[in-house]
From TrEMBL, chain A:
Record domain FAD-dependent oxidoreductase 2 FAD-binding: where: 11-386
Names of the cofactor(s): FAD
Pfam families noted in UniProt: FAD_binding_2, Succ_DH_flav_C
The keyword Methyltransferase is annotated on this UniProt entry: no
Official protein name in the record: Thiol-driven fumarate reductase, flavoprotein subunit
Keyword Manganese: no
Domain named Fumarate reductase/succinate dehydrogenase flavoprotein-like C-terminal: residues: 442-546
Active site, UniProt feature: R282 (proton acceptor)
GO molecular function: oxidoreductase activity
Record key words, sorted: FAD, Flavoprotein, Oxidoreductase
UniProtKB/TrEMBL annotation, chain B:
Pathway: Carbohydrate metabolism; tricarboxylic acid cycle
Family: Belongs to the succinate dehydrogenase/fumarate reductase iron-sulfur protein family.
UniProt entry tagged with the keyword Nucleus: no
Organism listed in the record: Candidatus Gottesmanbacteria bacterium GW2011_GWC2_39_8
NCBIfam families found in the cross-reference section: dhsB
Protein name (Swiss-Prot/TrEMBL): Fumarate reductase iron-sulfur subunit
Keyword list, A-Z: 4Fe-4S, Iron, Iron-sulfur, Metal-binding, Oxidoreductase
The 2Fe-2S ferredoxin-type domain, residue ranges: 1-90
PROSITE patterns noted in UniProt: 2FE2S_FER_1, 2FE2S_FER_2
Recorded coiled-coil stretches: none
Length: 557, 220
């Protein structure tokens, strides 16, 4: 069967329509270049919108960009790329202004100055916010701006492969999820902004679309990734009922006086971090909760309690209205009862290795947002993710624009590349016996949650790698249960996403095995100490289906 | 527990019909859990949208027993037969997926973006004035909740409740330069009553005061 496909040419292709991708597309459009923005979900519904508490920027004295730089490095255990952190923290105040130009209104104090709250490590407050739905308001502003500028976009569109020629990215190919039709995009430059990979874990705060597509597609064409072993678990995910397991409860709760207690009412953080208590760093609080529950001090849902019922009247509805609603919808009134929470996989600190202008290791490919690595080092500070996406979304656009200006036109994409990818996708739709994609996915989620979690250990990591190899073999035999139709074929989407999650997972585990120390989010039971000799980064690449690793020195200013 | 789900697709249900499914009930189960169970276990062709499970992305709206809701935030009762349909007042693309095109085209007509002047936000009060309207997640529940009793008399350009919320959002934002009241008046805001706004507010998953939006646009 020969499949039809259409070919579209553009200057710059932006893949991923979350905060970073939208910011990039807006900047590209404003600079006068032709742009197409693609996202897997309906425009505006990307995972960025789930960010709650706020975003860090030195917009209120006494905080300064230097202070923001310093705590970001400390928070990341000093393996962050200093050039990225510098660009990020210096430019953040300007990006806050941009967002307000796009329509956002960050919360104000009585005098009209920004309401800024202090997250962990923030001696000087940095977190600007809109209630506890900052990400959603940010998405709305960015979408409004994209609509205002008439940015061309196609939503519910799944890019499945990047096309490379002579070591340069020249476009991408993918499938329209609505119709199942293929489209080939030829571009002078490609910006990857596909977000994270939470769905490869059984319990995650992430949206369904976060399946590591960008990491996997980049690896498939030999692009370097960095820090992939660094996976953040947010200390406070909803624990019960099953339908909401893992859903985010913002750090703003603890920053405004939320108190953690075990099933016996003991404020257990005093045993682990008596000085910082609830405001220890995310990796620290997550480990504390894990240990507390492991000791048998958890609730019947293997969780701990988070109390806000001592807040003054009206403060819950004012400061955390969405958390209030989330629990209300499960029958819990947090004005009277505690929340049950447990850590939930939240963020991939690692990603495509970029320089401060978002250039990847391969020409024509730029990356920004969670799919890129290096800003957060070994542990991300709350409020730094949706923030840095704005800085690097803009930077990737400027950088890709300059790159595109040096090319007269996009290159033609060879029929072999197109047929190869269409052929790969069609194998999942072919007749014959096969394994269901969700079966492979479910096994991967368990492996990652149980063996590549908050605490790690050499033997379990080795088992995880073996299981992932096995699942990768099985995945070649995945078949969708719906054969006739490609449009709205959830199984087909699951199959493509599962392949991407497997590849991402393999890079995570391989790097985690190599780092024989504990640092930030990477806690090895068999190597519990932080080893100064490991103050360096692990770079992974794929070569003929094998993962190749090397270590590199931390990039200094 | 038995659940009736509206199905429509070219291959199996070209006309559109309700299909009954037997789903094991679990305490705390949401509509989304049911849909995922059916797709995974009973019929792989079932099409529906979801993303966040957090009630914030706005993509999973459906009708449950005639009422528009977000499927990820709505727990199901087991003692009745639940009926799940696509959002009303939208064309159905397939099964529970509605076509958003016409609604978004109309939305584009109201200039749904800030046309910013140099005037800054000066006080908390100014910042907070538009805040209830800025909570909209474009989920479409308000559109689905409208009873089109007066459809024949209503003009073709009649704005959706979501559009009114967006317009009110800019009216209450001192930075905006566009005459939003004029847009509202030219596109039939008079067909809305504050009472209808109140009904729609009760349906809104984000508790947006749609009645206030109508008041602002009609009475200013």
């Amino acid at each position: 069967m020969k499949d039809n496909f259409q070919t579209i040419k553009t200057d710059i292709l932006v893949i991923g329509a979350g905060g970073a991708g939208l910011r990039a597309a807006v900047e590209v459009k404003e600079s006068g270049h032709d742009v197409i923005l693609l996202g897997k979900e309906v425009l505006g519904c990307a995972h960025t919108g789930m960010a709650m508490g706020g975003m860090n920027a030195a917009v209120a004295a006494p905080a300064t960009p230097d202070f923001h730089f310093q705590i970001t490095m400390e928070g990341g255990y000093f393996i962050n790329n200093e050039k990225l952190v510098k660009a990020f923290t210096d430019e953040m105040p300007g990006r806050i202004k941009d967002l307000e130009d796009y329509g956002l209104i960050f919360d104000r104090k009585e005098d009209g100055e920004y309401y800024v709250w202090a997250g962990p490590k923030q001696k000087y407050p940095l977190n600007v916010c809109v209630g506890d739905y900052t990400g959603r308001e940010m998405m709305q502003g960015l979408v409004d701006q994209a609509r205002k500028l008439n940015v061309k976009y196609s939503d519910e569109f799944f890019i499945s492969r990047l096309i490379k020629k002579n070591d340069t990215v020249i476009g991408a190919i993918g499938v329209n999820l609505k119709s199942g039709e293929f489209t080939v995009f030829g571009a002078k430059a490609v910006i990857l902004a596909t977000g994270g990979a939470g769905r490869m874990y059984e319990v995650t705060t992430n949206a369904a679309s976060n399946t590591g597509d960008g990491y996997a597609m980049a690896m498939s064409i030999g692009v370097e990734l960095v820090d992939m072993e660094m996976i953040q678990f947010h200390p406070t995910g909803m624990a019960f009922p099953a339908s909401v397991r893992g859903v985010l409860v913002t750090e703003k709760v603890r920053a405004h006086g939320g108190i953690l207690r075990n099933k016996d009412g003991e404020r257990f953080m005093s045993k682990y971090y008596p000085k910082e208590m609830e405001l220890a760093k995310r990796d620290e609080v997550s480990r504390s909760i894990y240990q507390e529950v492991s000791l048998g001090n958890g609730t019947k849902h293997n969780a701990v309690y988070l109390y806000v019922n001592h807040w003054k009247e009206g403060e819950i509805e004012d400061k955390i209205p969405d958390v209030f609603e989330q629990y209300k919808n499960t029958g819990v009134d947090i004005r009277r009862e505690p929340m049950e929470i447990y850590p939930s996989m939240h963020h991939v600190m690692g990603g495509i290795k970029i320089d401060e202008w978002c250039k990847s290791s391969i020409g024509g490919l730029f990356a920004c947002g969670e799919v890129a690595g290096g800003v957060h080092g070994a542990n991300r500070l709350g409020g730094n993710s949706i923030a840095e996406g704005q800085v690097f979304g803009r930077r990737s656009a400027i950088s890709a624009g300059k790159y595109a200006d040096n090319l007269s036109q996009s290159q033609d994409i060879s029929g072999t590349d197109v047929e190869g990818e269409i052929g790969r996708i069609n194998t999942f739709l072919a007749e014959g016996e096969g394994i269901e994609p969700s079966e492979v996915e479910d096994k991967l989620k368990k492996t990652m949650w149980n063996k590549v979690g908050i605490f790690r250990e050499g033997k379990a990591l080795a088992e995880a790698l073996e299981e992932i190899e096995l699942l990768t073999k099985e995945s070649h035999n995945m078949k969708t249960r719906v054969r006739g139709e490609k449009g709205r074929n959830r199984d087909l989407q699951d199959a493509l996403e599962t392949i991407n999650m497997l590849k991402t997972a393999k890079s995570v585990v391989t790097a985690a095995i190599l780092r024989t120390e504990s640092r930030g989010a990477h806690s090895r039971l068999d190597y519990p100490e932080t080893n100064p000799g490991w103050q360096k980064n692990i770079v992974v690449t794929e070569s003929e289906d094998k993962i190749v690793t090397k270590t590199v020195p931390v990039v200094k200013l | 527990m038995k659940v009736s789900i509206y199905r429509k697709n070219k291959v199996n249900f070209p006309e559109g019909k309700f299909v009954e499914y037997e789903v094991p009930f679990e305490q705390g189960m949401t509509i989304l859990d049911i849909l995922v169970y059916v797709q995974k276990t009973l019929d792989a062709t079932l099409a529906f949208r979801y993303e966040c499970r957090q009630g914030i992305c706005g993509t999973c709206g459906v009708m449950l027993n005639g009422k528009p809701v977000l499927s990820c935030q709505t727990q199901i009762e087991s003692n009745i037969e639940n009926i799940i349909e696509p959002l009303a007042n939208f064309p159905v693309e397939r099964d529970l997926i509605v076509d958003l095109k016409s609604v978004l085209e109309k939305f584009a007509g109201i200039k749904p973006y800030l046309e910013k002047t140099d005037r800054p936000i000066k006080t908390k009060q100014e910042a907070d004035a538009s805040k209830p309207f800025r909570k909209c997640i474009e989920c479409g529940c308000c559109i689905a909740g409208r009873k089109l009793r007066t459809k024949n008399q209503e003009p073709r350009t009649l704005l959706d409740p979501m559009d009114l919320v967006k317009l009110a959002r800019y009216v209450t934002d001192p930075r905006d330069a566009i005459d939003r009241i004029k847009i509202a008046r030219e596109n039939g805001v008079e067909y809305y009553t504050v009472e209808e706004g109140r009904e729609l507010t009760r349906l809104c998953p984000r508790n947006i005061p749609i009645d206030e939006a109508i008041k602002i646009l009609k009475e200013n």
